[in-house]
Write a structure and sequence with these properties.
The chain is α/β, with parallel strands linked by helices and 334 residues long. It has twelve helices and five strands. A five-stranded mixed beta sheet has the order 1-2-3-4-5. Helix 5 crosses helix 6. The longest helix is centred in the middle third of the chain and has 21 residues.
Length: 334
């Protein structure tokens, strides 16, 4: 998939994986516990603040941006501003904390952006899409799974291995586009970002790594600035604090000119995470990646296993491609 031409509305091998941590589910976090549901009149569901157990943030390996007590207070303020249904619809318990950090402690801004991210995810039906991908139970689920597998069959986006810290790597190959279907492209993009996140979180982190390979890219592959802005939006506003670094490899001079036009839409924090990689950076990359376990575009030196879409979709959401593992996939009731 060529990410910047999507019409969006608007990402290390292990010997063994603890079987209790591997999932074959839409997402590794169940919603907050619902203790009571009032069906009201005419069958309408009413969820009031006393019907749910409020979530608390989980510990991760990501560093705090503020003192722990400050972050705890900020988290509570954001959570208290959400409706019971918004809390249930959160992607995971740490969503408010990531927004608190991303917005540098600006509570009003963090509340607004948290609410937006929750609504975006619900409107796009991300949870339902992930269920269809890994646990299809209806004809509609099967249809969604077929679409995702068609989009993914060339390996234009897929998650393989981890950097030396343990962050999952999402590989994006601009020359492997096979459908050019805007709606399906976006569903596929979101699926791969979610898979990247699930793999990273199994290692105790929240932020992942993305490698864009632009081998063979030409200006004709570029889209309008408007579409580029929308693509940037999905990573900056819908998946806040989910990216540690972005590496751009094999970028021709013409792409550099296009990037200079769109980088004004990147916030300062995102721009700092982007690195254009050239041959002179080989030694630098070895600080972050094991050359025996990564793709050649980032100076991998070993022949890695050829990508296979059937194998990729036969493994749980939080297992990367060709990850050596011993697992028993667990089913989670939605």
């Amino acid at each position: 998939m060529t990410i910047i031409r999507s019409q969006s509305i608007l990402s290390a091998h292990m010997d063994y994986i603890n079987e209790a941590t591997v999932i074959n589910t839409p997402y590794p976090y169940p919603p907050p516990s619902v203790t009571k549901i009032d069906h009201g009149t005419a069958g309408s569901v009413i969820i009031s603040p006393d019907t749910i157990k409020l979530p608390t943030p989980r510990e991760t390996k990501e560093p705090c941006l503020f003192e722990k007590s400050v972050e705890e207070d900020g988290y509570k303020q954001i959570i208290s501003s959400l409706s019971p249904q918004e809390i249930i619809d959160m992607s995971d318990p740490n969503l408010p904390l990531r927004h608190f950090r991303a917005d540098k402690g600006d509570i009003e801004k963090a509340i607004k952006r948290t609410k937006y991210a929750i609504k975006w995810r619900k409107d796009l039906r991300v949870k339902e899409m992930l269920k269809a991908a890994h646990n299809p139970t209806t004809p509609q689920d099967e249809k969604i799974r077929r679409i995702l597998m068609k989009e993914a069959e060339t390996g234009k986006l897929f998650v393989r291995n981890y950097d030396k810290e343990g962050r999952a790597i999402l590989w994006i190959y601009q020359n492997r586009e096979n459908t050019n279907n805007p709606e399906n492209n976006i569903m596929h993009l979101v699926y791969q970002i979610e898979r990247m996140i699930a793999c990273t979180e199994r290692q105790g982190y929240e932020k992942s790594v993305i490698v864009f390979d632009f081998l063979g890219w030409k200006m004709k592959h570029a889209s309008s600035l408007d579409v580029a802005k929308k693509t940037i939006h999905i990573l900056q506003d819908c998946y806040v604090e989910r990216i540690a670094r972005i590496y751009i490899t094999n970028s021709p001079a013409v792409f550099r000119r296009f990037f200079n036009m769109v980088k004004v839409f990147l916030d300062a924090n995102t721009r700092k995470k982007i690195m254009f990689v050239t041959e002179k950076d080989r030694a630098e990359m070895e600080k972050y990646f094991d050359p025996n376990k990564v793709e050649s575009c980032i100076f991998g030196t070993s022949k890695v296993k050829e990508y296979n879409v059937e194998e990729y979709f036969s493994t749980p959401l939080n297992v990367s491609f060709d990850e050596k593992c011993c697992f028993c996939a667990l089913q989670v009731n939605l």
